[in-house]
Specification:
This is Enoyl-CoA hydratase/isomerase family protein. InterPro entries: ClpP/crotonase-like_dom_sf, Enoyl-CoA_hyd/isom_CS, Enoyl-CoA_hydra/iso. It comes from Janthinobacterium fluminis. The structure is a single chain. With about 260 residues, the chain is of the alpha/beta class. The chain has a single domain, classed as 2-enoyl-CoA Hydratase, Chain A, domain 1 (Alpha-Beta Complex). It has twelve helices and ten strands. The longest helix has 21 residues.
Amino acid sequence: MSALVLVERDGAVARLVLNRPARHNSLVPELLRALLAALDACEADDGVRALVLAHAGPSFSTGGDVRAFYQQGENIAAYGAELVGLLNEAIVRLAACAKPVVAAVDGTVTGGALGLVLACDIVLVSARASFTPYYVDVGFSPDGGWTAMLPAFIGSARARSVQLLNQRISAEQALAWGMATKLVASIDMADQALASARAVAAKVAGSVRRTRALLGPDLPQLLDALERERSEFLQQVVSTEAQQGMQRFLSQGSQAVQR
């Protein structure tokens, strides 16, 4: 079986690639554990000065794997607690990483995958990138930073509208609203992400680390907010609404966010 997260080295830059393309890089515990292990290895390697978080296939990640949730049956609460707990850990680890992280988003981002992007320092998006919550359509409660992080980027009013109406945020909107750093052509994404990571890696490491710490979120506050999301998620995911929503979502076979 292929590694769920590939680690590719280019000098002082490590490229972490979400590698579950057949399932649109939807999140399962195994993938999140692989991401955490990759972050551990990169942080322990003094030769790594910057990271790129990228993806294989047409989607950055479609968030939690709805089919995997649905297949849990009576174990769904325990599965949800594990998955969202690992997701929260990955988001906080990215935000707290001593080394800067560039996100290369050349496809769809839905559900809890949003937090993996918002935790990065520099976010490059192509015209193929988009961000959609889907919670109120599937019947889940927001996780992955949709309430814990997004309002700080786009404001409370926009965050409420996007989530309550399940609105899609285009790449252009993400750039205008402060979620993304730069719009680049898909064909140039890998090179642009590597160039950005190399540029930061060439700076004074201690200064970069302290700048990130000062500009980044209050980590205990972020963790508290993410854990509040997890608590609400676990209460909702066992509901009849969630069961019916998963059935409906899976029966639709959405091409945009196929899980």
